[in-house]
Design goal:
heterodimer; A: mainly alpha; 19 helices; B: mainly alpha; globular
């Protein structure tokens, strides 16, 4: 076994650990709550470790895809030829960064879910299945398994939100599930068309990418089917006008699910646009990217305006997520190296930042049982740590230099100005609006006279503090140590087809 | 030439059926579940026998019957289905009828009918096999005599079924009139002699055959009997009906179309594609409005038939090569569908036997609290129907549609995917009842009978196995369809 193969098993174990955890939890008695929590905590810690390893061990100057591992799954049956379906894992710069993000957010989510007291067994089983789906999508280099894990990440959400959620949870859960699965319907049709058109008898993504570049997938074909993937994945990435599930879903979801969902799951959408759109259909991408730029910009501005008018904490964050995913889509739409680097950075930055925001909102809501901004006031006096963390997340959101948001948005805006200057300007406008809604929230909630009703609020508990510290650390590291991230992305991004 | 050893499994099944009836007469005091277990054992032995088949040469019995990998595939699938159905009946049927010997005997007889539908290579033999299966079903559906719904269901089923048989026979006679033979390869040769242009009478005959068999597998617009029959039948028979009758119907269709009509796709494929589209739309849309779980499953199974018919259309559009690929994927999907359906009914039977509730969707409210394991099984099978990953339906549906992805059929597949998206909605409504509410009527947490628990677990593992690692089953399915299109290709060339 060579070193690289050995590393492949790191990916495999990262994928397998959450599934094994789900199985172990399935066998534990439901009343054994302590055991259930410890199993989950250990799982989260292992994942954080392996994910960090994957990111650190990814060599910026090595091959594009590293840590590859390939097991034949089904071959030479029916229409499938050699390597028809294989469990084919590997990471490039983008997915190794996404793995790190997943590790951080999943661990933080486990910590804050320590408080879950209603049927924790079922909760954590679904939670780990969800996490396995996320990892699988990031690691898969086979279209069958890519879609398998992509769907797998969506399935548990219905129950996670429907059972453990709050505020119109049934409506939010059903709307979210139906819209996301509706998106994958489009993807599924696209997959049929691509595999049939390429007629290679394989689902292997590298081979299909090659087919896309070589013109085996014709230009017209790419133009017709590119939208299927972009809209299909775009639903999950809150592509305007398919974003409407996002505020409702986030409002209803329990804390950890909001964190994972806004933090990681939405990135599956933009990641899918890279893998299935840009990489598989470069000509379709070139043709359709202006449209994506328009929709992404609308999303960025619309989300910011929406956030400006909301009174519910979670709705503010939900709309701000729409806005930030709009930036990601703008970055992708530039099809330039710097824009795509920015999009990838923004995926990470938004992930940790929004996970932190939802963590804090959850910590507040558990005590206050309201999320209406107008109910609060002056809580900086009773919850100083909470407020400091929130301010850091908020300022990262706004794009303050030294925090992750600036690093990402800087790249995106430079890329956008190079390719579509007008939209770059609109993007800056959205960033300015972000400052508006964040500062509005700060002033209403944190400062001013303390509402006596909140005299009894306690600050974050130790679990939340550890999780928060981890997320704040990630935000700061990305804000100050750019090269740690950009070096790993550079080769990958430059080698994407059609990227200059 | 006659090789009587080909039918050793069927001799066994027929003998066991008689034996079970005799045992009940001879020993009336026998605990009633014993008969169920004996039937299950007999079915398993049947499956074991069929693994040792000797492939017959096509001349045996003048080629009326072909025992090959395809037949074996359905023998084993059918035997498994009968075994599970019998086990489900053990508790469920105990108080629903006074005499049960015939009930279990007929399960085994139905198994024989199923096998011969897969094995027949001649229209009249196929028709007789179909009738053996149908008559068994007519009786089984009405077996719970004390239940008016059961009687109603049986009557509806028998009247409409008789009508469908007449339609089928009319089609057979037209085809015979034109081609002068009822043998599958003979029909193909007759068609080839006519030089590609199909006689109008031939097309009419073919359409009538499609309608007749479409009735048996409950394809729209011939599906009207299904919801009533499903609702009225005893729960295990509903499970049997929605698995065995569809498996047998598709076995017959595959054997017939691959041998006789594969080369003349232009004249019939549009009709099958149309029926497929109609079936999946009707099945899935009407299912949304159902308040009874059995009816909901009936309509959802109609939708499933629509997906499977896409493969038959693909045989018409793609010819033998695509047809063979798609057919093997169809068999894979069939296995996943049968396992998922049986898992669903195992869980429901265990639940209803214990709670004594009727089959309304509200009846399962709060199942996640009262019996979380059964709720998990129900969820897994419903997600499998909807085609979500980890569960059989995801992989099998994906491969089935992918194998059928002919350019002209892409829109049909698009409709199929949208239809399965719609189906997710009503499956979620069922799951919602189980997980989002507390049980009604002070239902406490209860334990499942160990035997039901074991069966549910076995089927659950089956769903996961087919869903995650479908390779082995896919290879078996591939081997099973291999004889089909070779025969067709030989006759066509």
């Amino acid at each position: 076994m060579t070193f690289d193969e050995g590393q492949g098993y790191v990916l495999l174990s990262t994928l397998a650990v959450p599934l094994v955890a789900a199985l172990v939890l399935l066998l534990l008695p439901g009343g054994f709550k302590g055991g259930i929590r410890w199993v989950s905590l250990i799982t989260g810690a292992i994942l954080l470790g392996t994910s960090t390893y994957i990111f650190v061990a990814y060599q910026a100057d090595g091959d594009i895809f590293q840590m590859e591992l390939r097991w034949a799954w089904i071959e030479n049956v029916s229409f499938l030829g050699e390597n028809g379906v294989s469990l084919y894992l590997g990471v490039d710069g983008i997915s190794s960064l996404m793995a790190l993000l997943t590790g951080i957010v999943a661990f933080a989510g486990t910590l804050v879910s320590w408080k879950v007291d209603y049927r924790p067994k079922d909760f954590f089983i679904l939670y780990w299945v969800l996490i396995a789906g996320v990892y699988g999508t990031f690691f898969s280099l086979d279209l069958f398994f890519f879609f398998f894990f992509y769907e797998l990440a969506v399935v548990p959400l219905y129950l996670l939100i429907g059972v453990w959620g709050s505020t119109r949870k049934e409506y939010g859960a059903m709307k979210l599930t139906m819209m996301l699965v509706g998106g994958s319907v489009l993807m599924w049709i696209g997959i049929f068309a691509v595999v049939a058109e390429a007629d290679l008898g394989t689902f292997s993504l590298p081979e299909l990418w090659q087919a896309g570049e070589d013109g085996v997938l014709g230009e017209n074909f790419q133009k017709i089917f590119f939208p299927f993937f972009v809209v299909g994945c775009g639903v999950l990435a809150a592509l305007w006008p398919f974003h409407t599930w996002s505020p409702d879903g986030h409002m209803s979801a329990p804390t950890a699910v909001s964190m994972v969902h806004a933090g990681v799951l939405m990135k599956l959408g933009s990641f899918g646009i890279i893998r299935l759109g840009i990489q598989m259909m470069p000509e379709g991408a070139e043709f359709w990217m202006p449209a994506l730029m328009v929709l992404g910009t609308i999303g960025a501005v619309y989300g910011a305006v929406g956030a400006l008018t909301q009174r519910d904490f979670k709705l503010v964050s939900g709309y701000s997520s729409v806005s930030h995913m709009g930036y990601v889509l703008m970055g992708l739409a530039t099809l330039s190296a710097i824009g795509l680097t920015g999009a990838s950075l923004q995926m990470f930055s938004h992930g940790v930042m929004t996970a932190l925001v939802f963590l804090l909102i959850g910590a507040l809501y558990d005590q206050a049982h309201t999320r209406d901004l107008k109910d609060f006031g002056g809580i900086a006096k009773v919850m100083p740590l909470w407020v400091i963390a929130y301010v850091i997340a908020g300022l990262a959101n706004v794009g303050l230099p030294g925090l992750s948001g600036f690093t990402a948005e800087f790249h995106i805006f430079v890329g956008t100005f190079q390719t579509y200057p007008v939209f770059g300007g609109l993007g800056i406008l959205a960033a300015a609006l972000a400052a508006g809604y964040m500062l509005r929230m700060f002033s209403i909630v944190f400062f001013g006279p303390l509402n006596p009703r909140w005299q009894e609020l306690r600050d974050v508990n130790p679990m939340e503090a550890i999780a928060g510290l981890l997320l704040v650390g990630s935000i700061v590291v990305m804000g100050v140590w750019w090269s740690l991230f950009t070096d790993r992305l550079a080769e990958t991004v430059l080698n994407l087809p059609g990227v200059s | 030439m006659r090789d009587y050893t080909l039918f050793i499994p069927e001799y066994w099944a027929a003998a066991a059926a008689c034996l079970i009836i005799a045992i009940e007469i001879a020993r009336p005091s026998l605990p009633r579940p014993t008969l169920a277990y004996l039937t299950a054992i007999a079915a398993v032995i049947y499956g074991g026998f069929s693994l040792f088949y000797i492939p017959n040469d096509p001349e045996s019995f003048m080629g009326l019957i072909q025992v090959d990998d395809f037949t074996t595939f359905f023998r084993v699938l059918g035997a498994g289905t009968v075994a599970i159905t019998a086990m489900l009946s053990a508790t469920h049927m105990r108080h629903r009828a006074s005499v049960l010997g015939e009930y279990y005997g007929l399960l085994l007889v139905a198994l024989i009918g199923l096998t011969f539908m897969a094995a027949a290579r001649e229209l009249l033999t196929a028709y007789i096999a179909l009738e053996i299966l149908s008559f068994s079903f007519y009786i089984l559906v009405g077996y719970a005599r004390r239940d008016v719904f059961s009687a109603e269901a049986s009557l509806k089923y028998i009247l409409l079924g008789g009508f469908a048989s007449a339609v089928l026979l009319y089609g057979v006679s037209l085809v015979y009139g034109v081609s002068g033979t009822t043998f599958y390869d003979g029909i193909a040769a007759g068609l080839a002699d006519q030089g590609g242009d199909m006689d109008l009478a031939m097309i009419a005959g073919l359409m009538l055959i499609i309608a007749g068999v479409g009735f048996k597998v409950s394809a729209a617009p011939f599906h009207m009997w299904a919801p009533d029959a499903y609702q009225g039948a005893p729960l295990p028979i509903t499970a049997f009906l929605s698995t065995a009758s569809k498996a047998a119907g598709f076995a017959l269709i595959l054997r017939l179309f691959s041998a006789s009509f594969v080369e003349e796709g232009e004249s019939w494929r549009w009709a099958v594609a149309g029926v497929a589209v109609l079936t999946m739309i009707v099945g899935n849309l009407v299912a949304i409005q159902q308040t009874d779980l059995k009816r909901l499953v009936a309509y959802s199974s109609i939708g499933q038939v629509g997906y499977m018919l896409v493969v038959i259309a693909a045989i018409g559009y793609g010819g033998p090569e695509i047809g063979e690929q798609a057919s093997s994927a169809l068999l894979l999907h069939m296995v996943g569908y049968v396992i998922s359906t049986l898992a669903l009914f195992t869980a429901l039977t265990a639940y209803y036997d214990r709670t004594g509730r009727d089959s309304s969707i509200r009846g399962i409210r709060g199942m996640a609290e009262s019996q979380p394991y059964l709720a998990l099984i129900v969820t897994a099978s419903l997600f499998s129907f909807a085609g979500l990953p980890f569960f059989a339906g995801f992989a099998t549906k994906l491969f089935m549609f992918q194998a059928s992805a002919e350019p002209e059929l892409l829109w049909v597949i698009g409709v199929a995917i949208v239809a399965s998206f719609i189906s997710l909605y009503y499956y979620l409504m069922v799951i919602r009842e189980m997980y989002l509410f507390d049980p009604e009527g002070g239902l406490q947490r209860f334990r499942v009978q160990p035997i039901m628990w074991a069966m549910a677990t076995l089927l659950f593992v089956g769903i996961l196995f087919v869903g995650i690692y479908p390779g082995p089953v896919f290879e078996l399915a591939d081997a099973a369809v291999e004889p089909l299109f070779q025969v067709g290709a030989d006759a066509g060339s």
